[in-house]
TrEMBL record, chains A, B:
The keyword Metal-binding applies. Keywords: Lyase, Metal-binding. It holds the Pfam family HMGL-like. It comes from Salicibibacter cibarius. Belongs to the HMG-CoA lyase family. This is Hydroxymethylglutaryl-CoA lyase.
C-alpha cells in the first residue's frame, strides 16, 4: 500500500483560535511529542503580527525551544517579508505562504486582493532565494468560500501556476471552512495532478460538516498522498464564521493504518499526545478515537 | 446520478439508549416530520421486552399514532414471535430481524447463539408468511465485534444465505460499534453484490471513530444504494461498550445532495427536524450540519 505523508498543524491552525494562551513550554512539549510520534512535517507556528494572532506571539521562542528530529520537517506560516526573515532567523526549514482563491476571503483574511498577495510573495521570494528554506504555497478556500460560495476551478489552477512560477516547490489546496464534497475533491485533485503530475500536492480539510475523512479517501483515490491534519481535530479559521475543527490527526492515522496504508506516524503515541493536548487545553477536543478507542481495543467478554 | 435510499432509524436505534424517556406524543411528532421530509423508510420502533428497552415500551401506541405517508415504508425491529405478532397488529409494513455475526455479541445481545437465533427466526417466518409484512434481515457486527475482534467474511456470506433461504427480501450489514474501515466496506459489499447481484442490500454505519461518511462513499462505490442513518447522529447499541452515534441523517443527505445524488428526502426539513429533536432531548446531538449550516449558507461580506 501507498505511503501517506502526514503534516501536523495543531500548534498553528489549532492554537491560533484557542481562547486561552497555551504556554510556550507546553507548546514545545507538544511539538516534541509529535516529533517523537514521527509525523512527517509539523507546521510549528506562524510568524505574523502578535496583535492579529496573540496565541502565536511566541513563535520565535517555540521554534528555538523544540528538539529537531531527523526526518521531520519544521515549517511555519508567514504572511510578509518581516515574518519570513524572523522565520529564517529561527531555522525554519519550510515557509508556508497563504492566499485565498476567493478575493473576498483574502481581503477579510489579510486585507489584500489575491493579486496584491502575489506581489507581496514576489518580495518574499526574492529574500527566500538567498536562504535554504523551501516554500509551500497554500490556496485557502480552494473548494468554496463562505462569502462568495463556489470558487472557479480555473482560478485554482491559475493560482497553482502562479505559485509554481514564483518558485514554490509544494502546493496545498485548503478547504478552509469545510465546504468540499468528496466528489469535488476527487475532480479538482485529478485536474491538478493531470496538469502537474509530479507536484508535491497536499490537501488540507476541515471536518466542519463531517466530510473530512471521506474527502481524504477521495483525495487518495485521485492520487494525492499528502494530508494536513490537526491533533484532536482542533482548529478552524478565525476569519471563517462557523468553522469547527480540522481533520483529526489520530482519527486519520487510525483509519489509514487499519486500511494498511504506510503512515510513518505512530498511532498510539498520537492518541497519547491528543490526551495530553486535552489536558493542556482543559476542554474536550473533537477527535473520536480518543473517546471510542481503536478498533482493535477489544472489550472483555465478562463485561 | 444514482438514487440513494434513506432508512431513518433515530426513533429506534437512537431512542433506545437515551437516558430519558421521550414521550409517545413527541415520538409521533418526530416520525410525522420525518415522513413529511420524505425519507424512504422509517424504522419506527422495536417490539421487544419493555424491560430490556424501556424507552420503546410504547411501540404499539407510536405505531398506531403516526400518520402514514404514501411512499414511506414503516418498519419495526422484532426479536421473537410475540413481538412479530404485536407488530402485525399495528400494521407494521416490514419487520427487521437481527442476529450478530459474532456469537459472543449475539449472546450478549439476545442471550442466544447465532444458530439459536436462526431457529427462532424460522418460527417467526412461519407466522410471517401468513401476513403481508416483508422481512429484512440485519447482520449485526458484520465488520467487527467489540468482544471477538475481526469477523469472518465467509461467515457474513453464509448468514446472508441463511436469511435469504428463510425468505428475507432485504439484507442489512450493520457496523454495530463503528469498526468498519472504508476499504473493508468496499470489499465486503462488492463480495455480497457479486454473489447476489439484485439483492436489496443496505449498510448501517456508526460514526464511532469518524469513518461513517467515508464508509458510505465506499459502499456507494461498490454499488450499494441503501443506507441507514439516524437524525442528529443519535444512537449506539446499549450492548456495545464505548459506541457513540450512528451516521447522521442530515449530514449524509447534505453530502449526497451536494454531490448530485438523487435523495428523496428534503435536506432543509431534515435539518429542522434535527433541531426539533435536539429540543425534545434537551441535549446536543452529534450532527455537524445543524451546527455549521449547509455549504450553501453564505455569510454576509460585511460580517
Amino acid at each position: 500500500m501507498q505511503k501517506i505523508t502526514l503534516q501536523e498543524v495543531v500548534t498553528r491552525d489549532g492554537f491560533q483560535i484557542e481562547e486561552q494562551f497555551v504556554t510556550t513550554e507546553k507548546k514545545i512539549e507538544l511539538i516534541n511529542r509529535l516529533s517523537e510520534a514521527a509525523v512527517d512535517k509539523i507546521e510549528v507556528t506562524s510568524f505574523v503580527s502578535p496583535k492579529a494572532v496573540p496565541n502565536l506571539s511566541d513563535a520565535k521562542e517555540v521554534m528555538n525551544g523544540i528538539n529537531r528530529t531527523p526526518g521531520v520537517t519544521y515549517s511555519a506560516l508567514v504572511l510578509n517579508l518581516r515574518g519570513t526573515e524572523r522565520a529564517a532567523e529561527c531555522g525554519v526549514e519550510e515557509v508556508n505562504l497563504v492566499v485565498s482563491v476567493s478575493n473576498t476571503h483574502n481581503k477579510k483574511n489579510v486585507r489584500r486582493t489575491t493579486e496584491q498577495s502575489f506581489e507581496n510573495f514576489q518580495e518574499m521570494m526574492d529574500y527566500l532565494s538567498s536562504t535554504k528554506m523551501s516554500v509551500n504555497g497554500t490556496l485557502a478556500t480552494s473548494f468554496g468560500c463562505p462569502y462568495e460560495g463556489d470558487v472557479s476551478e480555473d482560478k485554482v489552477l491559475r493560482l497553482v501556476d502562479q505559485y509554481l512560477e514564483l518558485g514554490a516547490t509544494g502546493i496545498t489546496l485548503a478547504d478552509t471552512t469545510g465546504m468540499a464534497t468528496p466528489k469535488q475533491v476527487f475532480e479538482l485533485s485529478e485536474k491538478v495532478l493531470k496538469r502537474w503530475a509530479y507536484l508535491p500536492l497536499a490537501l488540507h480539510f476541515h471536518n466542519t460538516r463531517g466530510m473530512g475523512l471521506a474527502n481524504v479517501m477521495e483525495g487518495i483515490r485521485a492520487g494525492v498522498t499528502r494530508y494536513d491534519a490537526s491533533l484532536g481535530g482542533l482548529g478552524g479559521c478565525p476569519f471563517a464564521p462557523g468553522a469547527t475543527g480540522n481533520v483529526c490527526t489520530e482519527d486519520l492515522v487510525h483509519m489509514l493504518t487499519f486500511m494498511g496504508y504506510e503512515v510513518g506516524a505512530n498511532l498510539d503515541q498520537l492518541i497519547d499526545s491528543a490526551k495530553y493536548l486535552q489536558d493542556v487545553l482543559g476542554h474536550e477536543v473533537p477527535g473520536q478515537v480518543i473517546k471510542a478507542g481503536k478498533i482493535t481495543d477489544l472489550h472483555p467478554i465478562s463485561e
